[in-house]
C-alpha cells in the first residue's frame, strides 16, 4: 500500500456485487487442483462496472493498478517468508502472478480461465487475475480490495504448501480469508504497510461484495461463506494473527 494505500470508495457497489455473484464459484479465488470450472459470462454492463471511468487525478490507471498489485505480492512474500522462518521452515514464494484480459488466455491444469475472476492455480503454482475485472473492483471499492484479493489468493498457495485440504470448500475459503487478514494486519503492525483512513471500511465493503448468496448451502461445492462469515474470518486473522486461522 505505501503512499497509495489511500483510495476512497468509488461510488455504489451494486455493479461489482452483480459481477461477483454472477461469476460464482471461487470468485475471489479458489484452490483448484484441476482448474476452475467454467461459468457463464456475466452481462457486459456488470462485467466491468466503471472500467471506463477515470479518476480526476488519473491515479487508477491499469499501470498503476499493476504497480500496486506488485507491492501487495512483494509484501505477501515478506510476510509468509517470516512466518515460515519463525516455524523453522523455508518458504518458496508463489512462482508467478499473471494478469490476463481474455477468456482462455491463461489456463490452469488444461482448463481455460474465464473472465471476471482471480484464482490460485495449484497445478502451475501461480495466481492469475482478469486485469480489467480487478481494476474495476479496485476503482469501485478502493485499493484495500486489491490487497485483500491478493492476500486471499496467496493464502491458497500457502495452504497447498502446508498440505491443508479441507473436505468442504467453505472451510478452505474462510481459512484463506483469515490468512489474508493475518497477512494484512501483521504487515501493518510490522510497518511493511500503512493503513490509511477509509481502508478498513474498504475491506468491509469488499467482503460484503464477495459473500455468497444467502440461499447458497454452506456445504455446496464452491461455497465461500456469507458476507458475515467472510468478514468475521478476515477480521479474526487481521486482529489476532495466524494463530486464529487453525493452521494446525
Ligand atoms: Zn478462494
What keyword list fits this structure?
248 residues, alpha/beta, four-stranded mixed beta sheet, two-stranded antiparallel sheet, 8 helices, 6 strands, 9% strand, globular, binds zinc ion
Q: What do these coordinates show?
A:
The protein has 248 residues and is an alpha/beta fold. It has one domain (22-42, 56-243). It is built from 8 helices and 6 strands. It has helices at residues 14-23, 44-47, 62-86, 131-141, 143-162, 169-189, 199-210, 227-240, and strands spanning 28-32, 96-100, 107-108, 111-112, 118-121, 126-130. The protein has a 4-stranded mixed β-sheet with strand order 1-5-6-2. A two-stranded antiparallel ribbon has the order 3-4. Strand 5 and strand 6 (126-130) form a beta hairpin. Helix 4 packs across helix 5 (143-162), helix 5 (143-162) crosses helix 7 and helix 7 packs antiparallel against helix 8. The longest helix is centred in the first third of the chain and has 25 residues, at 62-86. The relative contact order is 0.18. The structure holds zinc ion.
Question: How would you concisely characterize the structure shown here?
Answer:
With 248 residues, the protein is an alpha/beta fold. Helices cover 47% and strands 9% of the residues. The chain contains 8 helices and 6 strands, in the order H-E-H-H-E-E-E-E-E-H-H-H-H-H.
| Main sheet properties | 4 strands, mixed
How many helices? The count is 8
Number of domains: 1
Rounded Rg: 16 Å
